[in-house]
Amino acid sequence: MIAAEAEVEKPVRTRPLVSAQSKPYLPHYVRLQLDRLRDRYVVLAPERVFWPDGVAVDIIALCDGRRTVSQIAEQLANDYAAPRETIETDVLEFVQSWTDIRLLRL
User: Fold this and answer.
1) Around 55, how many Cα atoms within 13 Å sit in the side-chain half-sphere?
2) Dist CA 31 CA 44 (whole Å)
């Protein structure tokens, strides 16, 4: 009989979890730019195009790697005259979803 091959371990991809202290930013291969023809912002990534809504654009524009999620939420709460807790929950959810699909990094 042939000896069984050693079981090869597959690399495990860990999911970065976003917190209020995370400092999200766009990786070098992702760009936010204005599509002048459509007068809309577009997010360009390798072989992918995203058309974020206005709120998403406001969040992405603040993701510069210097501001924390908490600071981003504070800025947006002031801009929108909305409750900070509600905004922070929405920002955390958005940043987590975009981090999961590798459009934002922490």
Assistant:
1) 12
2) 5
Q: Which helix (H) or strand (E) holds 54?
A: helix 54-62
Q: Where are the domains of the chain?
A: 53-100
One digit per residue, the tens of pLDDT, for the chain of length 106 reads 455 555 667 777 788 999 999 999 999 999 999 999 999 999 999 999 999 999 999 999 999 999 999 999 999 999 999 999 999 999 999 999 999 999 999 9
Q: At what angle do helices 84-100 and 54-62 cross, to 10 degrees?
A: 80
Tokens standing for residue 63 = 């993701």
Distance CA 16, CA 11 (A): 15
> Domain 53-100 class?
mainly alpha
